[in-house]
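Internal ticket - ligand job 277, magnesium ion:
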Amino acid sequence: MSNSPKFVIDGLKATIENKEILKGINLEIKGGEVHAIMGPNGTGKSTLASAIMGHPKYEVTEGTATLNGVDLLEMEVDERARAGVFLAMQYPSEITGVTNADFLRSAINAKREEGDEISLIKFIRKMEGKMGELEMNPEFMHRYLNEGFSGGEKKRNEILQMAMLDPSVVILDEVDSGLDIDALKIVADGVNNMRSEERGFLIITHYQRLLDYITPDFVHVMMQGRIVKSGGPELAERLESEGYDWIKEELGIEDETVGQEEEEFKMPMNTVAPEFK
Ligand SMILES: Nc1ncnc2c1ncn2[C@@H]1O[C@H](COP(=O)(O)OP(=O)(O)OP(=O)(O)O)[C@@H](O)[C@H]1O
Ligand SMILES: [Mg+2]
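stdout (structure tokens):
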């Protein structure tokens, strides 16, 4: 039997504080595939990642997100991680009092049966090996999770977690933001080393430069809480050189952010408020 996963998002809608942010997302990611999601600020990309992972602030109102036919949205948050979904967040949280090693060891053991926990020595060897590949200072093993980590150190640490947890679906939200050029290559190598038929990737990014190192199979553009355009790597290249205006023109979109387009009144462009006339 093949271990190749199939992750399907179907008609996903989600609200935050009663405001609809995701307006029907459809996406299918198979093992071995890398999908990139791009899109202007405030169009729902991080919301999509959070909704899949079960962030309590987001309420899914319609649709499903299934991994190998099982609906993740019916699961508790920790079950989703155990089922093999991993999210590297745009803004990883700091957890004082829990070391990086403690955190990862518990996360690995949570995925294993009772009595089959990873031995301390095996765990340390694995963590040291992965930290070496990511050129991380060994002291990060015993630092509190993300506490005082620089922006780039946090991102590298997210990739360490991914490498340690061996997930089937990997969602990376702006894992390239704030990385220096060398770190960007290291992170990209970390992802490329993990590419296999046993894993699918969803990479949210603003920049072609990450995709220069991690060649995506599909590129999707998100606007107004929907995927409005999909293509291959050439789509990301066109966005890099031309921006988003051509897509907005093509689709007749004026404001690409979510939650604005349904407002009853819109101030027309070039309108001057009466008192300034
Ligand atoms: N907790 C929240 N409370 C209120 N509004 C929210 C909340 N979370 C998200 N939103 C709104 O939902 C919209 C989409 O946000 P989201 O973070 O998904 O955008 P994004 O596409 O990831 O943008 P960026 O590229 O800037 O990271 C934004 O208008 C944002 O302000
Ligand atoms: Mg975001």
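Auto-summary: The CA atoms of residues 24 and 31 lie 23 Å apart. The radius of gyration is 20 Å.
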